[in-house]
Amino acid sequence: MAYNLKENLMKEDRFSGGHRMCAGCGSPIAVRTVLRALDPEDKAVVCSATSCLEVSTFMYPYNAWKDSFIHNAFENAAATISGVEAAYNLMKKKGKIDETWKFITFGGDGGTYDIGFQSLSGAFERGHDFVYVCYDNEAYMNTGIQRSSSTPHFADTTTTPAGTVIPGKLQQKKNLTRIMVAHGSPYVAQTTFIGNFRDITEKAHKAIYTKGPCFLNVMAPCPRGWRYPTEKLMEVTKAAVETCVWPLYEVIEGKYVLNYMPKNKLPVEEYLRLQGRFAHMFKPGNEWMIEQVQQEVDKNWEDLLKLCNM
Questions:
Q1: How far is C-alpha 31 from the geometric centre of its chain's CA atoms?
Q2: CA distance 230 to 54
Q3: Consecutive H or E run containing 191
Q4: Cα angle, residue 199 at apex, residues 77 and 179 outer, rounded to 5°
Q5: Topology given in CATH for the domain delimited by 5-307
Q6: What is the pLDDT of residues 37-80, one digit of tens each?
Q7: What residues are paired with 102 via a beta bridge?
Q8: Residue 172 gets which letter from DSSP?
């Protein structure tokens, strides 16, 4: 896809404003940008697991979605879209449908990394032609900021409160992007919002127009759970990329491709200090936490460079 910022901005928006997502939230930006990657003539069926996104954009009888939209339970978004895609193929085979339809599912990390992983894995194993987009805000934000398997090491959440007993979450973040690669998907990518949105737009277009089950993992910060000022959203995602906490890469038919190499890889504290959920790590005596996270990030980055043959 030849990226043209002006042409992309001129497309009709498929996701309305006026929804009730928080100011400074990353998920509506992820949704709007992914849907803009659709070709204007193509129709889409969008499915969303129960989440902040769903409850804030689909309040009956109000709806922020301009494409056909399905809300389903927390755990079965991928299963639902699988059935829709199968029904579409049958109707097209019988000559009842002529148009080209695309199938896109959105889920938060709770409904993707954890509760919905069984239906996601099954849909990929069966080979349905759809795109699953995880907007990763690294906790169960909709129900009270509880930890998920996506929550980073030492993050302060309501179920892993940093204090005298534990220093926040005790486990490292699950690497779901790599897990989805292991499913044999033709296209898997990790992205977020930086610069002119070129990275996420191009990856969304590739995912939508690649035959088979494709997966996008989008870092989508949450101002309530991460505790940053709403206007700092882009600064947070940029710091995640520049510190290599959230590398930008894609895997095309099993081949790893690094999309961005920081000119000067920043120390991890440049990312951590922007967020209140890591504030305890900067207290005297807790320097070991920052050092440990830096070691973990460095190892993950070195492993990724090897996979990319760099």
A1: 10
A2: 21
A3: strand 187-191
A4: 45
A5: Rossmann fold (3.40.50)
A6: 999 999 999 999 999 999 999 988 889 999 999 999 999 999 99
A7: 44
A8: P
